[in-house]
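Pasting as-is:
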Amino acid sequence: MTTFNGGINFGGSSLVQGLTSTVTTWFELVDKIKASNENPERRDTIIIQGDIERPTSVTTPELPNIKSNLVIQGNPDDGDDSISTLRRERIFVIGEYLGSKNLTVTIRNLTLDQGSFRGITAGGNSGGAAGVGGAIFVHHPSSDFNTLILDRVSITNSLVQGGDGGFGNSGGGGTSGVGNAGVDGRNGASSFLGSAGTNEGGSGGSGGQSAG
């Protein structure tokens, strides 16, 4: 079991045991996460049955940010349950940049497959943003922390990419699989505003924890 945390557990929690739901489709999973977010005083459990893949339609919604204390798990008896975005986006984002503090999210008995994230392309002479957390990203707002517990979870075929650098002498963003500083990014692209940047991009920044 792996825990990414800032030091919170359910031991002294005032949470009440919530609802347990089984989902078999992407849209059911979207709805259950939304319902859990609307009741943060509960600790709901979502059971994944089978392989859930993001539909390829451009109108398909992303999974909502998790903003409640939630357990997401597969069936411990078969070990065959999975969630995949087919490299269209991250699978899970826990918390928000501002808000959703002191959450504990547990994911167990699951394969998280083909999550993906690309850093934002820079403008002007800036370097591209870091690519972090293809499968999961955990926000840590201000001085508070959110906790992610991974128990018998496999993260496979994830992809993270730094964003492209801006015009001229700009570098691309770094990449990181664990949310620490990333590796140097690539040079900025050439254009009518300047030739390709000769400096490598700076290291990708941290600011949250990520898996995959």
